[in-house]
């Protein structure tokens, strides 16, 4: 597969050939279900003439059906382009296809999509991760040059680790959320999934920047990480030993080998510990579901998508939401309404906000004398479909990625080998706020050493 860097140097005719080749591959690998068009039999969506970038189904592309993988948004046509989509067009790239995803980005396996599940191209009996499973599966399976995903609690990094590609979550506020269907407004970020670190840096540079249409957007200088990528830079890296100890033995072995490689490259490795990840999971699901319960009140059968039957407004609301939302979305919205309800707000939501600050403080202390923090991405390699028997088991697959979103930090997942089942293992590097350069430099150094 041609890289994004190579594609950006190609003529219009060569790009047309790449798109034609991708269409053939997408048709041949229909079973993977990375593209929604693979699952519905619809013609592949295209917009523009540039290098093709797969777009997650929760990012607005004008005149496309954008549904967030949900039944409730069937019939909705995007009336405008998200800011990241406009940025692609300005830099010689174009949206190419809708990536399958967990419904409204609520999931860790891309099993909750209205359209059906996506398979992991490395082993089709295993999940591709989620919620950006379609984006990761397409890139890792050679069905996309690069893709955009969204990350609320690990939804770019975890599927990248499971499928064996690079996935990067920017600092909160670095990439505009305008045109992204909100799940949890204080956690969501759009980010790149790519074949290698340099391509991820290129795509990040394109989508990053201040946007007056997003009130959470950070007014900072344009990113220039790809041009300044430096694999020879020597970094100080804190390894979180207690998290690695909680991983499966084969994952821990791959991580240990990668850490040894970083040390041989001249990086300074120090050992550290962080607090119990269980507190991160609890904090995340209180805050994320609370924000979702407020955000999703807009899906009422009146303003967007499909409408249920009813003789009164109340009945329309009830039938639309009962029929339109899947089980996982309903579960999280109910939880969010509960933690915000009278008598429980202080006990859960307010306490979770306090814990969130403690998590950010813990990272700040680690970053005070180190450039990066190193952790696993997931405790295991990709698991089998339907193997997580309870919601809690599924939630724990994001146990090492959630804290990054709570603290608003940049982080990247880099493949560092395979586990005992010959499935990819991902390593996570976490940087200081707005220090994406160190994140990319560390990842580039590791990637280059492992080739």
Description:
With 451 residues, the chain is α/β, with parallel strands linked by helices. It folds into 3 domains: 4-207, Amidase signature (AS) domain (Amidase signature (AS) enzymes, Alpha-Beta Complex), CATH 3.90.1300; 236-276 and 351-450, Amidase signature (AS) enzymes, CATH 3.90.1300; 281-346, no CATH class. It has 16 helices and 10 strands. It has a 10-stranded mixed beta sheet with strand order 2-1-3-5-4-9-10-8-6-7, with helices on both faces. A hairpin with a 5-residue loop joins strand 9 (411-418) and strand 10. Helix 5 runs parallel beside helix 6 (157-163) and helix 10 packs across helix 12 (327-339). The mean pLDDT is 96.
Short key terms for the protein model shown above:
Amidase signature (AS) enzymes; 10 strands; single chain; 39% helix; 451 residues; 16 helices; alpha/beta; 10-stranded mixed sheet; 3 domains
Biggest sheet record: 10 strands, mixed
Under CATH, the topology of the largest domain is which? Answer: Amidase signature (AS) enzymes
Total separate domains: 3
By CATH, the superfamily of the largest domain comes out as Amidase signature (AS) domain
Assign the structural class, choosing from mainly alpha, mainly beta, alpha/beta, alpha+beta, or little secondary structure: alpha/beta
Number of helices: 16
Strand content: 5-15%
So what's the overall shape?
Answer: globular
| Strand element count | 10
* H-E order: HHHEHEHEHEEHEHHEHHHHEHHEEH
């Amino acid at each position: 597969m041609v890289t994004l860097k190579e594609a950006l140097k190609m003529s219009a005719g060569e790009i047309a050939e790449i798109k034609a080749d991708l269409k053939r591959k997408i048709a041949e690998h229909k079973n993977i279900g990375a593209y929604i068009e693979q699952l519905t039999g619809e013609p592949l969506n295209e917009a523009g003439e540039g290098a093709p970038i797969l777009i997650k189904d929760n990012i607005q592309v004008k005149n496309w059906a954008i549904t967030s993988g949900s039944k409730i948004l069937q019939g909705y046509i995007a009336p405008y382009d998200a800011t990241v989509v406009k940025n692609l067009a300005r830099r010689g790239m174009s949206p190419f296809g809708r990536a399958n995803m967990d419904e409204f980005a609520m999931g860790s396996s891309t099993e909750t999509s209205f359209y059906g599940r996506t398979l992991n191209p490395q082993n089709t009996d295993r999940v591709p991760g989620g919620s950006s499973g379609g984006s990761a599966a397409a890139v890792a399976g050679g069905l996309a040059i690069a893709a955009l995903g969204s990350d609320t609690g690990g939804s770019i990094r975890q599927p990248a680790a499971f499928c064996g590609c690079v996935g990067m979550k920017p600092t909160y506020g670095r990439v505009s959320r305008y045109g992204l269907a909100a799940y949890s407004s204080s956690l969501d970020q759009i980010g790149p999934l790519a074949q290698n670190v340099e391509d991820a840096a290129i795509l990040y540079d394109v989508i990053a920047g201040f946007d007056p249409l997003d009130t959470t957007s950070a007014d900072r200088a344009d990113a220039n990480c790809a041009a300044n990528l430096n694999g020879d830079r020597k970094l100080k890296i804190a390894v979180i030993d207690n998290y690695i100890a909680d991983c499966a033995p084969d994952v821990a072995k791959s991580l240990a080998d990668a850490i040894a490689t970083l040390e041989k490259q001249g990086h300074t490795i120090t050992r550290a510990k962080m607090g119990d990840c269980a507190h991160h999971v609890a904090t995340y699901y209180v805050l994320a579901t609370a924000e979702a319960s407020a955000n999703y009140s807009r899906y009422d059968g009146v303003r967007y998508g499909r409408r249920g039957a009813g003789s009164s407004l109340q009945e329309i609301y009830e039938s639309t939401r009962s029929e339109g939302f899947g089980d996982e979305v309903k579960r999280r919205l109910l939880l969010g309404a509960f933690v915000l309800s009278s008598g429980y707000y202080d006990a859960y939501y307010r306490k979770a906000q306090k814990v969130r600050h403690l998590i950010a403080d813990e990272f700040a202390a680690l970053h005070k004398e180190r450039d990066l923090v190193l952790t696993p991405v997931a405790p295991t390699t990709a698991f089998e479909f339907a193997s997580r028997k309870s919601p809690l088991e599924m939630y724990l697959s994001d146990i090492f990625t959630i804290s990054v979103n709570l603290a608003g930090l940049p982080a990247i997942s880099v493949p560092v080998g395979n586990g005992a089942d010959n499935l990819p293992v991902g390593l996570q590097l976490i940087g200081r706020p707005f220090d994406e350069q160190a994140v990319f430099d560390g990842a580039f150094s590791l990637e280059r050493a492992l080739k």
